[in-house]
Amino acid sequence: MVNVEIAVFGAGYVGLVTAVCLASQGHRLCVVEKDRAKLDKLRSGHAAFYEPELEGMLADAAGADRIHFTNNSGDAVHSADLLFVCVGTPPLPDGSADLSQVEEVMKTILKHETERKKHEEDKGKLVVIKSTVPVGTAYRLKRMADLYGNGAGEIEVASNPEFLREGSAVRDFMQPDRIVIGTSGERGEAMLRSVYRNFDCPVLVTDTNTAEMIKYASNSFLATKISFINMISDLCDKVQADISIVAAGMGYDKRIGEQFLKAGIGFGGSCFPKDLSALTAVGRKHHVKVELLEQVIGVNRDRPLRLMEKLKEEMWVLKGKTIVLLGLTFKPNTDDVRDCPAASVAERLLKEQANVVAYDPAGMANFKSLYPELSARIRFADDAYEACRRSDGIVLLTEWPVFKELDWGRISANMEAPFLLDARHFLEEAKLKQAGFIRGSRT
Ligand code: UGA
Fold it and tell me: Ligand 1 pocket: which residues have CB below 6 Å?
């Protein structure tokens, strides 16, 4: 095993982006990944998911010998002083976060540290939690180290939440709005400040509980903005106001800000739905009223329902009609279809006995493997033109930039009835009308 400064546990989204970006800053890292197939893929230079810029940077890091992939956690603990924990924290049936993978990594670290300490004397390790974890997790892990560390020496546990978005993860990591360091000791702060020494942004140093809460509060607030604008959008529909202009008018107010005010089919993905459920579960546990967040979840859950109402209003009978879903991923520039609104919309259309055709530039393979039963009832097309040919209506569900470049005149000319519902407020209505669409309707 080569000598590295940093070990990263888990080569998922957060882990791999963290490792590759830190390698680009000159650090030497190893990434510990248990999944053999993922490991082989990474060693051959490929990520298990699509993220712009990532594979190029991975190739550079590997070429410069700054990144290594291993399933040998012992070597990683032995070699690095800084251990980033980036494993998954998926939701349990009650909505709370499943921390078994985080605990497993800590047990592994303690086991190897105890072994190592029999032979060596040094300052011990800094374990940094980057996974999104409930408040109190770093504190519990520290207690675990103190109680069961058995000769493992001084292990410090810090929280360093990540705020990157899929699709722009590299840029978000390299140019963060802030870096949050939650720590109980000066050594942890100094080590993390040194890791991030080249980043030009505010660094907030606090205790671990506060750092963990910053992550949940940030995601919940962003999700609240989205559900809020979606509620306003429904009102706009009823009173004939234009939601895009309303959002723009609000966004000019610096206290509100223009971001995360795009109305549409609602939020999906692996973060917002999971983190909101986890935070509301914490609220219920501590008897704190979190109805506001429950409403945010409720408004979001109803978005596909609203879309169906609108479709029925516009297309009347859906049974037997062919409806095309353009976009399956929960947002553009990713192949991630976890918790994607498209699955819920497809389910509802099939229930109405419509024929569903789908096309997505990157997410079709993942969609088929994540929703096999649903996919068996959908026809997947090779491109957007083929998907829309002889269809009765199109629903645009993901704002992929390539969809803007389509020849919409050619598409409308080949449809049974040129109807499109833009569930992302993405395409220009005037252009659609010019292209022959009877109605460039929105939701
Ligand atoms: C989100 C946060 O934005 C990141 O800061 C955070 O680090 C990450 O979760 C995480 O916890 O790991 P992500 O889920 O990748 O990032 O994607 P976003 O860009 O936040 O979009 C989430 C969902 O909200 C998407 O379905 C998107 O289409 C939707 N959205 C976003 C809207 O409907 N309207 C908007 O105005 C913005």
Answer: 132, 162-166, 219, 222, 226, 260-262, 264, 266-269, 271-272, 330-331
The complex's ipTM works out to 0.98
Cβ(171)–Cβ(139) below 8 Å: no
Atom of ligand 1 nearest to the CA of 230: 33
* Calpha distance 203→158 (Å, rounded): 14
pTM: 0.94
Domains, the chain: 5-206 (3.40.50.720), 215-301 (1.10.1040.10), 303-442 (3.40.50.720)
Q: Is 271 a catalytic residue?
A: yes
Which atom of ligand 1 lies nearest, measured to the CA of 341?
A: 26
- Which residue among the candidates 21, 30, 236, 271 is catalytic per the annotation? 271
* Model confidence pLDDT, tens digit, residues 316-327: 999 999 999 999
Q: What is the pLDDT of residues 138-194, one digit of tens each?
A: 999 999 998 887 666 689 999 999 999 999 999 999 999 999 999 988 889 999 999
